[in-house]
UniProtKB/TrEMBL annotation:
The keyword Hydrolase does not apply. Keywords: Transferase. Gene3D superfamilies: P-loop containing nucleotide triphosphate hydrolases (3.40.50.300). GO terms for molecular function: sulfotransferase activity. Belongs to the sulfotransferase 1 family. This is Sulfotransferase domain-containing protein. Residues 62-316, 400-654, 690-942 form the Sulfotransferase domain. InterPro entries: P-loop_NTPase, Sulfotransferase_dom.
Length: 948
């Protein structure tokens, strides 16, 4: 990003299509030639050629705020919000002074427009808000070097909405005379300035974790402007009172923005119409709808954009479009802070320039002198003068048959390395006992971490190794060879419990670096990332995010310690396409046992350590292979150090401690686990039968209660069978390869089927709306649903924060199935259909017999008084909780105990209280009020009854 040596190749855009689109007024200025600029792969009017260098050398100020977007992604809306936030909510000025005068548009330059906007931007008073649509590579170089770093806000939007909005923009501003279908072709080909949307977005997506960058989406802003305004204010270090937030959101409402002459450009547009004798009645601020493309794009154009999007995002870690559904990240394991070797750039970026700076933090010097960082006589650098070794590693030639073992230090590297070497070398135990492992499997970064004369040139040695090579590295993902992500050899990553790593690494430093500090001092350094190669969780999370890649195997030390059950070895062998006989598996597991490894001179480094002790005159009796215990930290860490690591881990991993990762799927705006998008098409094409009964609810709204009632009504009140039969669940486990294929089970189920689902209406099978089976829907008061969902997340996903904190995620839709009220309202619209019955949890608690009777009538079942009484007794909360077929008591008991220990507090069972209003014992009054206000906001403008 800060590469001072980039040479921009500017060439005439000779493609015949460019000329066609230019004459159609697509490229803003039909009288001007168009140029193509590489490596940004962008098209611009020819006069822009003369301004590339001027823009790149533009002087950036530390207090600048930069808004960068692809056109028509909500730029004006965001720009107005940002200007107000950095100007003390000066609404008066915001209504009188044109936004383009308050916040300059950097590249709106004099040679192809009427003003020198760069000169205006240079002269404007601080703090400046500067807008740009330029791709990342063409922005000023100082954006990446000025300290403290300037704030950059980047906004994305659904590609189809952008295409339609940009089409109308061209009609308005450029007298574009082509059709929408023509425009879509140009948009996809990158002929609309400044190039293709996905190239533009992905460059910023790849640096999204930079602390000075905030990446938001237009859809988020439309869905929850209060939350985005609050989040943006925090990013800009601005605080807002409730009243100020309310005023800001009112000012930013679509209607207010559309009427505001300082942002809607009506005055300027009228002059353009008069000057050009232009009769088009387009507006600059048009509709602002999410999904508005549906009103205008043909099915062919829509599919064309979907297909193009899938192609552009394939091979990236950007959540891609599948089956026409846009998938975006909703909640991942969050990262916090800098790691000692962070470089936030595209992994395959050929123009990378590493920002390497002295690590001036006084703590670094303190730890260096204590021999923490291996070599007390050496200066420490923070990789963010760059030695050539880094560049050599990045440009290292990777082979397709390589196997790479990458770990944070002390996570079972040697153990994994020995296993992998044997698997790819036909279990050559003889060589494995006689030839040192470091000679069989090189560590590519050994020389990088030490003095050049202390270690051999391992890169050169690795280059000369015969295939197949097993290469070891402790480097973070961003510093590994670029070709790893294009050649795609096998990569095995191993992680370990943070407290065990800290203790093991402490002893490692005492052994190899004569570390003189205490274990508590080491824990401080470990948590702050002052040990090489930085912070454990930054290292681990980068690989966690790519664990679904077919060439990546993500393992844990704890799995490996169960070596005696051989499952781990078998899994790894299968990943490497190696097969093992029972006898071979037994031999390998014996060789890899802890005792065997500790005695093996080819891996235990005893000979080398003896030499080190003599050279250093050291009496430390540490061993390289020490204890290898899971939980060994308990014998050494004090409670304070243990709590420090736990707190740090919670902050680093935020909510779900590895257990929960979500993607958001639009147009349903629903959150599901990462594998779910692969099943959308299968679910949508699921065959529905006329006699099906579908129980559909938002999670934790009384689903189990309702489905038990419906199943019994459909099956002649067969209480005996109800104790042993599981009801079909669509949309739950089918995206986990090791779980049951629930879709297949449903397909084979006899009629009448009772099918349960938590999916929103948009993701359910298409045939539901044509075959029209019976629907039984259930809803519960939002605060009760929230609290029940909170306890569910504690039980199943190790949620570590408070219920009040969970409420923020719940209202933001960052829980399974997304926003509650979107889900409920999607079905509320069809409540009057004859095949739909809409119940509430509160009704069932207040008058269960009445609800049962109404449901029986709806399903065409008649009940005697005795049957009704027996059914209500069976459905009572006590009976349901005692019924193992629905409470899952046996399988949940162990989970509850385990989670209670892990989360240090009460963990409730699957069936908890079943009370109306039970939220009062978990939610604070302030958060309860916030949830009520959120509910009112979501239900305003609907006819859904507000009952609190």
């Amino acid at each position: 990003m800060a590469d001072k040596h980039i040479e921009f190749v500017v060439e005439p855009a000779e493609d015949p299509s460019v000329e066609k689109y230019r004459k159609d007024n697509l490229m803003h200025v039909s009288s001007q030639k168009i140029i193509k600029i590489n490596p940004s792969n962008s098209y611009m009017p020819a006069p822009f050629r003369d301004h590339i260098d001027r823009i790149r050398r533009f002087t950036v100020r530390p207090d600048d705020v930069w808004l960068v977007t692809y056109p028509k992604c909500g730029t004006t809306w965001t720009q107005e919000m940002l200007w107000l936030l950095i100007n003390n909510l000066d609404f008066e000025t915001a209504k009188k002074i044109q936004l383009i005068r308050r916040s300059p548009f950097l590249e709106f330059n004099e040679d192809f427009h009427s003003v020198d906007t760069m000169k205006i931007a240079e002269n404007i008073a601080s703090p400046r808000l500067i807008k740009s649509h330029l791709p990342l590579q063409l922005l000023p170089q100082q954006l990446w070097t000025v300290k403290p770093k300037v704030r950059i806000i980047y906004v994305t939007r659904d590609a189809k909405d952008v295409a339609v909005s940009y089409f109308h923009h061209h009609k308005l501003m450029c007298k574009y005379n082509g059709t929408l279908n023509d425009f879509v072709d140009a948009f996809i080909s990158g002929y609309a300035l400044p190039g293709t949307i996905w190239d533009h977005i992905l460059d910023f997506w790849n640096i999204r974790h930079e602390p000075n960058l905030l990446l938001i989406s237009y859809e988020e802003m439309k869905k929850a402007i209060r939350r985005i305004a609050t989040k943006t204010a925090q990013f800009l270090n601005r605080s807002l009172t409730e009243e100020q937030l309310k005023q800001l959101c009112e000012h930013l409402s679509f209607e207010s923005m559309k009427k505001n002459p300082a942002v809607n450009l009506e005055e300027q547009l009228q002059k353009i119409r008069e000057r050009q004798n232009f009769e088009v009645e387009e507006k600059f601020i048009r509709k602002g709808k999410v999904g508005g493309w549906k009103d205008e794009l043909s099915p062919e154009a829509s599919e064309k954009i979907d297909k193009w999007t899938r192609e552009k995002l394939r091979g990236t870690d950007y959540p891609c479009c599948r089956y026409g559904y846009s998938v975006g990240v909703a909640a991942l394991c969050m990262r916090a802070g800098d790691m000692a070797a962070r470089i936030s750039v595209d992994m395959a970026d050929k123009h990378i320039d590493f920002v390497v700076e002295p690590a001036e933090d006084p703590s670094v010097e303190k730890y260096r002198k204590a021999n923490l960082v291996h070599f007390s006589t050496q200066k420490i650098i923070k990789i963010t003068p760059s030695n050539s070794y880094i560049e050599r590693i990045r440009r290292f030639t990777v082979r397709p048959d390589d196997v790479w073992i990458v770990t944070y230090p002390k996570c079972g590297t040697t153990w994994s390395q020995e296993m992998l070497w044997l698997l790819i070398n036909d279990l050559d135990f003889e060589t494995a006992r006689t030839i040192n492992l470091s000679r069989r499997s090189p560590c590519i970064d050994t020389k990088y971490i030490g003095k050049e004369h202390q270690f051999p040139d391992t890169i050169k040695g690795t280059e000369e190794f015969k295939s197949p090579r097993l290469i070891k590295s402790h480097l973070p993902l961003q510093l590994l060879p670029q070709q790893l992500w294009t050649v795609k050899p096998k990569v095995i990553y191993v992680t370990r419990d943070a407290k065990d790593v800290a203790v093991s690494y402490f002893h490692h430093h005492k052994l190899f670096s004569k570390y003189t500090g205490t274990l508590n001092d080491f824990v401080d350094a470990f948590v702050n990332g002052y040990v090489m190669p930085g912070a454990l969780w930054d290292h681990t999370l980068d690989f966690w995010k790519i664990r679904h890649e077919p060439n990546v195997l993500f393992n844990t030390y704890e799995e490996m310690r169960k070596i005696e059950n051989s499952t781990f070895v078998t899994k790894t062998a299968k990943f490497l396409n190696r097969s093992l006989t029972e006898e071979q598996l037994k031999q390998l597991c014996e060789h890899l046992s802890f005792e065997s490894m500790k005695k093996n001179p080819a891996v235990n480094l005893e000979e080398e350590l003896q030499q080190i002790r003599k050279q250093q005159k050291s009496e430390i009796e540490e061993q390289f292979i020490r204890k290898g215990k899971v939980g060994g930290w308990k014998e050494e860490l004090c409670p304070e150090a243990s709590e420090k690591i736990e707190k740090w881990t919670r902050e680093k991993l935020r909510v779900y401690l590895y257990s929960y990762e979500l993607v958001r799927i639009t147009p349903s705006n629903c959150c599901m686990s990462p594998g779910f998008p692969e099943k959308i098409d299968t679910i949508r094409s699921f065959t529905v039968r006329p006699d099906d009964v579908w129980v559909v609810t938002y999670p934790k709204c009384g689903t189990t209660w309702t489905q038990e009632m419906v199943w019994l009504l459909l099956n002649d009140i067969d209480f005996e069978t109800a104790k042993s039969v599981s009801i079909g669940f669509l949309g739950s486990k089918e995206h986990h390869p090791n779980q049951l294929d629930t879709i297949k089970l449903l397909e084979n189920m006899k009629s009448p089927r009772c099918i349960k689902s938590h999916l929103p209406a948009e993701l359910l099978p298409k045939q539901l709306w044509t075959v029209k089976p019976k629907f039984v829907l259930l809803e519960v008061e939002a605060k009760d649903a929230l609290v029940s969902s909170y306890h569910h997340h504690r039980l199943f996903f190790s949620f570590v924060e408070s219920c009040d904190e969970f409420a923020e995620y719940f209202m933001a839709g960052i829980v399974g199935c997304g926003y509650m009220w979107d889900h409920v309202l999607g079905f509320w619209k069809i409540r009057d259909e004859p095949n739909v019955l809409f119940n509430t949890f509160e009704e069932m608690k207040k008058d269960l017999p009445g609800v049962v009777k109404r449901t029986a009538d709806f399903l065409g079942r008649s009940l005697t008084s005795e049957q009704l009484e027996n059914l209500c007794e069976h459905l009572s909360f006590k009976s349901m909780k005692d019924n193992k077929a629905v409470s899952h008591e046996d399988e949940m008991h162990h989970r509850e105990e385990k989670q209670a220990v892990q989360l240090k507090g009460k963990v409730y069972p699957f069936m908890r209280k079943g009370e109306v209003g039970s939220w009062k014992s978990d939610l604070s009054p302030e958060v309860a009020e916030k949830v009520d206000n959120w509910t009112k906001e979501k239900l305003t403008g609907t006819d859904y009854p507000i009952t609190f």
